[in-house]
Specification:
heterodimer; A: mainly beta; Elongation Factor Tu (Ef-tu), domain 3; six-stranded antiparallel beta sheet; four-stranded antiparallel beta sheet; 43% strand; B: alpha+beta; 2 domains
Chain lengths: 276, 440
Amino acid sequence: MPSRCSLLFAVTTGPTDLVNASAHSGGWSESHWLPGIANLANSNLAVLAQRRAALLPSLAQIIGYRIEIFTISGNKLLPGGTSSGRFRYPGTWNSLNLPQDGLQESGTTATGPNAARFVLRGMPDAQIALGEYQPTTGFTSVLNSYNTLLAGGWGFAGRVLTNPSVRVMAITIGGLATLSAIPAGLGAGDFLRLNRVRDQSGRPVIGSFEVQAPAGLTVQLNGYTGQVVGRPNGLARKDQIAIYLYSLVVPTRAVIRKIGRPFEQYRGRRSKRPVF
Amino acid sequence: MAVEWLRSCYQSSWHFFADDPGRKTPGRYYFSPPGAPFYAHRHILASRNWLDKNWSAVQTLGEDLTEPQQWNSGGLPAVRVSTASVGSEACLADGEFILNGIPAEDLVNGFRDVCILPTPPRTATWEAASDFNSCSIQLASARIIEWMYDANTVSIFDFLVPFLGAGWTVVWHPPTTLFPSVTTAVCSEGTLCWVDGTVNFQQFALQAAYALIPPQNVGGFGTSGFWFSCSNWINGKLAAAGFDPSKPVFFAGHSYGAVAALVLAARMLLADNTRTIRFLSYGCPHVGNNAMVQLLRRGTGLQLRNDDDIVTAIPPNLEQLLPVLAVLINPALLSWPTWKKAPFGVMQDDNGALTPDEEPLLDYPTLLVFAIDVLAALPYPTVEGHTITEYFRRISVRCAAPEWPLTDEEYTKIFSTDLILMNDTSPMLMNDNTPMLMNS
């Protein structure tokens, strides 16, 4: 039963020229997965939060966390309860441009081709110069510390890309699919994902479909959309989710990612708050 | 205890019973008081909003995955609930059994009666009394303003004094020919201020005259000179009531009173933008220029606009005004589009349902008649949707049960009619022979 651990962030801008600008608040969250049933005591979420906060500008802080337990069933997640609470880990860097300034990171895994790309928002603007990520030595050091922690037991949810793919030979209007071979382990109730399959009109056939028991080289797709595939094209793969642990996390480039409304401090649809 | 992080509250249904997982129980989230501790253990009260949209989820115990979510203001329940723990961690983590379920008819505001604490002699906090998101506060403020129109000080004091409790000083300040009546409540935490609206021709005519020119620069922002004078009047009443300028202030007003209160709020925020200013307005017209709107954004508030209250859409914007301008060819009207609406507005329909950031549409014939009347300084017929009574009615549909911070008794009191007694000793400066132009 894996757990998705989320950190909740808040930022309040602090303009000094209040004639031309007023303060804004915003919030966002970042999530990583642990393979077992996690709680605040048995996970190092607090350490992760501390190291993440060390990358934040002083106008931003980590204000809370959520831990959701899931059971993975094929390609579905079954929620199994949540716990949440407050954190207070303020940022330390003195500079903030727009909170939307982000650093994209890439996390690869040793057990498959999956890779996660996630964005660290609220980047101190001194680390982005001339339009690109240009970190100082100090920032690189704390980022490496954060990335090392992520690669020490944290992970992400991904599709099992190592499941064998087979050629889709044809699909009838009723959803009876003929495959070049039955994917290993595919049984009734499993899901089959169609990739790059096109129907007779050239329109893409997209989706993941529950299958009935295979018969020969054919499987019946439940809930099929009715597009007829008349010639062999595209691939089908048993659709499954798994948790992959990061083996290496590295920064890639500076990006922009919007932030949302704050999680606390005010109610309703207010977009601005005074500076306190 | 807090159980979830949410940006806004809503109503939905949850699956709570382990031996009957298909059974749904309605519920809602409400905002916990500041500093409330989180429930530290695993539970099934979480919001489905947090589910990762990249993956499909299967219904288990917890929030129903398909039930439509209905926005909720997040006001606290009207009852005080014991902080004692009831039940087990397993019940919240893995579901309850039907046998232990409590019939809905045994619940009061969602709680068992044994969990409800008796209401102590209260002192309402400024935070509670100024919670403009609470439909009960919206309802109570509308009623107070309605009583102020009637100079019904008996009802005002009968409601406010016990509601606010010890430590508050409530004063009603009578109107003059030009300026509205003001009710103030002051305590060591902050100030509450209610202002009623236009009651005579002089007030209407002056507002109409000032509306024919662009917002006047009053120092830092632009608005009507008449409204600015009225804000001085309100500020004088606040000073007379002994308010502390460094403490939070809550303004509630209707129509002319709303806009004058907002002008004062903007002045206070201009002087010190770290102040906590809240406002709640009913039927507020466009307030001033963009600078004033930006100033008001430094505070927090809610502008209620009934969907047929055209007063809230005047002076009109350029798109609405152009056809009328083409007919009347009066350059005086060109200044109207420079008037902007106040921020944090919501439109309220006939059933009290709210739509954010909307205002009533001014159709061409209505606007034409209105423009002719203003140019000729003629009385304008009553706009039914603009009356404070209509605002009260619509809120009461949305707020069918008492919500924090009002108790059942206080909620009932604002609906009672037997207290509407004119206080004959109150000075009535209104000229009763003056025709009522706008019912506001």
